[in-house]
């Protein structure tokens, strides 16, 4: 086995039952390396080769400790956790996003904090946005912003990917903040069967181009191809249309939402290709919703535009449907195009680049707080049970997608409608069309 670069080691740490093994199994799949299955031997640490998108790393998990039946359980857990942390280049500290913080969480967090290793705080069991209440409490751990994921359902892995990328030396230039020009912009093209994905891939990449097949550093069955658009590097990642073109899949797959999920996680901008004759069908909406939940930027391609006679009204109808059916990506760009003739393909790429810029945008704390003040003045939060909910100040926690934290009191009682008012305000004031906006709240102790 040859290794070009030293392996990055990732440790999953947390109290029992938060879902460490589940995440470990998801990242390692069937490639589990060293499991000691001999009866009577307590499995203290497991390790394996983890993969997420094109990242490959050594992963260490401290699961199984709760089954230890001799000695001081707590002492052993502590020792094993410390050992795992010591080996790690980055620690995934996991809490249960539904359960809220426990004394055990605090104890493990303490070990992590004292190690001074880089840490990514992961709030698990947050599928379908459920139970983020517990995650908000975790701000008090002082380990940064909790990242909601669901190890069991595979949600939030795109965010995890983004968080891990900076720890991989050869991927340094992928950090948009460091070198915007050098890093390829990762796009995926998804859509219903027959929307025209393969045709568009051919059009974009050109048939003479070599496709990058499965090779070192790329997940076994994923395909990607790099090309340039107006001097800008673009990487088309694991897209159903691409796989079809590359004949990696022999028989024509039945393309479905499940295929889209894979591509979406590792793209920065997702192009959702619609058939202009039947745009925004149920399956299109599911895919769009998934893109928003995964925190990716979204652009719509309205394909087969060559077959549309009443272009003006058709585009207006599509815009109206988008605003009505997908408020979570309000203002997303719709690019009419014909993958077959090439008309509008340039416009689509311009929309992709523009949306990528929005997705990466950072709003200054001063501007954000000016906005907050004006917003509260115009329409203050309601009183709940006779008491005012107060919002005091805010900051942008991260970009990719734009994520904000507002600090105040009783914020967990804010009604949904008020949260929507805030999100819409952020979107309009800071011109953030077509990207999911994340807004969380925090009550300082
Ligand atoms: P560990 O002790 O931290 O390794 O936790 P496990 O991976 O053994 O998971 C503990 C329990 O949580 C199991 O019943 C899992 O099925 C469940 N679990 C793990 N991840 C998730 C998740 O994302 N969502 C939900 N709802 N349950 C999960
Ligand atoms: P996929 O299943 O999404 O990959 O779709 P394909 O690329 O295989 O296209 C499905 C069908 O739509 C094929 O017969 C294409 O020739 C046709 N098609 C794709 N793009 C266009 C377009 O822009 N205009 C027209 N008229 N037909 C198209």
TrEMBL record:
Residues that, per the record, bind GTP 2: 191-198, 238-242, 303-306
Keyword Repeat attached: yes
Biological-process GO terms, alphabetical: ribosome biogenesis
Cross-referenced PROSITE patterns: G_ENGA
InterPro entries in the cross-refs: AAA+_ATPase, G_ENGA, GTP-bd, GTPase_Der, KH_dom-like, KH_dom-like_a/b, P-loop_NTPase, Small_GTP-bd
Coiled-coil stretches: none
Membership in a protein family: Belongs to the TRAFAC class TrmE-Era-EngA-EngB-Septin-like GTPase superfamily. EngA (Der) GTPase family.
Gene Ontology MF term list: GTP binding
Gene: der
UniProt entry keywords in alphabetical sequence: GTP-binding, Nucleotide-binding, Repeat, Ribosome biogenesis
Keyword Electron transport included in the entry's annotation: no
Name the record gives this protein: GTPase Der
Complex formation: Associates with the 50S ribosomal subunit.
Natural source organism: Hansschlegelia beijingensis
Record function comment: GTPase that plays an essential role in the late steps of ribosome biogenesis.
